[in-house]
Design goal:
Largest sheet: 8 strands, parallel
Strand order of the largest sheet: 7-6-5-4-3-2-1-8
Distance between the termini: 21 Å
CATH topology: TIM Barrel
Order of helices and strands: HEHEHEHEHEHEHEHEH
Strand content: 15-25%
Shape: globular
Bound molecules: pyridoxal-5'-phosphate
Number of helices: 9
CATH architecture: Alpha-Beta Barrel
CATH class: Alpha Beta
Helix content: 40-55%
Low-confidence stretches: none
Structural class: alpha/beta
Number of domains: 1
Length: 224
């Protein structure tokens, strides 16, 4: 099946209130354009450099979609990231959020951020440990930063062949999300829960995901 029909088929099976973000790593601009033609609204990139070449290749079509940073953001890449992305999904500390705030203010930009939660507490993965108090404190702190709008939580979750094994982690992330929402922090409107990938998105949606991030299932296996 073509990328266009695959995207449309998946879009039909996913509830309308769940956003689909396309994880673009290793994909060509032609492949990404095919998905945009089929109605894709959100693109995710793991590296600033990757997003930069994709944006250049897409030209004016790049304005038709929202751009999300879904990989770790290095301090020396923040300025470039601010020019490219609408959303940074991988904020993991107040210090990092302050760095982004400082540079965003300097260029007069407002942007959306999500906090990345390391729900499996895996040393190889980035993100904030899934402790309610830690996340609550961070959410309150980031809400005070003028140029950042904290709108969501993002998690990768541990990798298992069986998506059912990931379910408890997705459930726990949803509980943390609901808890922070229940605090009704002034100026904080948490609406996005970004979790679920090609192998796990159905389970993630059952556990309350509002944004799934798909690569393989739309574009096919990665060559590299
Ligand atoms: C690659 C990637 C995805 C999508 O992975 P697939 O298994 O190809 O669907 C989602 N989120 C992040 C952060 C990724 O790097």
């Amino acid at each position: 099946m073509s990328i266009q029909s695959t995207y449309r088929e998946i879009r039909k099976t996913v509830p309308a209130d769940v956003d689909i973000l396309l994880a673009c790593k290793t994909r060509t601009p032609e492949e990404v354009l095919a998905a945009i033609d089929a109605g894709a609204t959100d693109l995710g990139h793991n590296y600033v450099q990757e997003a930069e070449s994709m944006a250049a290749a897409l030209g004016e079509r790049s304005g038709a979609v929202r751009w999300h940073m879904i990989g770790p953001l290095q301090k020396n890449k923040i300025n470039k990231a601010l020019r490219l992305f609408d959303v940074i999904q991988t904020v993991h500390s107040f210090k990092q959020a302050q760095e982004i705030q400082k540079r965003a203010e300097a260029v007069g930009k407002h942007l959306t951020v999500y906090i990345e939660v390391n729900i499996g507490e895996e040393s190889a993965k980035s993100g904030v440990p899934p402790e309610q108090e830690v996340l609550e404190k961070l959410a309150r702190e980031i809400s005070g930063l003028k140029n950042l709008r904290l709108e969501g939580l993002m998690t990768m979750g541990p990798f298992y062949d069986d998506p059912e094994a990931i379910r408890p982690y997705f459930r726990k992330t949803r509980q943390i999300f609901d808890h922070i929402r229940s605090l009704k922090v002034p100026g904080l409107d948490l609406t996005v829960l970004s979790m679920g990938m090609s192998d796990s998105y159905r389970v993630a949606i059952e556990e309350g995901s509002t944004m799934i991030r798909l690569g393989t299932i739309v574009f096919g296996p990665r060559q590299t």
